[in-house]
Structure formats: structure tokens, C-alpha cells
Design a protein that fits this description.
Layout (H helix, E strand, L loop, with lengths): L1 H7 L1 H5 L1 E4 L2 E4 L4 H13 L3 H4 L4
Antiparallel strand pairs: 1-2
Length: about 55
């Protein structure tokens, strides 16, 4: 999945993978996590991922 996303540009070119209530980031660093969170907020996906059910 990560290879596909790096080729298609999805998920910041494979930088992260998400499913409901979980995000996996390729590099555990403050900068990388900050970049992924900002991207998810800008793409209106953050609250979709972590919505309460």
C-alpha cells in the first residue's frame, strides 16, 4: 500500500496510512507527525478518522 501511495501521491506520497481511529506514520519524528496531522486537517480527513462512534 505504501509503495502504491508513493507512486500515486496519496497520503503524502506514502508518508502515512490511516484506517478508522488509527494513523501509521513512516517516520516517528515531531516534524513528520506535524506534517501528517496538518495534511489530514487541510484535507478534512482528521475528524473523519477519529470520529466517535
Amino acid at each position: 500500500m505504501r509503495q502504491k501511495n508513493s507512486q500515486t501521491g496519496e497520503c503524502l506520497k506514502g508518508k502515512y496510512f490511516w484506517t478508522r481511529n488509527m494513523v501509521l506514520v513512516d517516520t516517528i519524528s515531531r516534524e513528520s507527525i506535524h506534517q501528517v496531522i496538518n495534511h489530514l486537517i487541510e484535507a478534512d480527513e482528521f475528524f473523519q478518522i477519529f470520529k466517535l462512534q
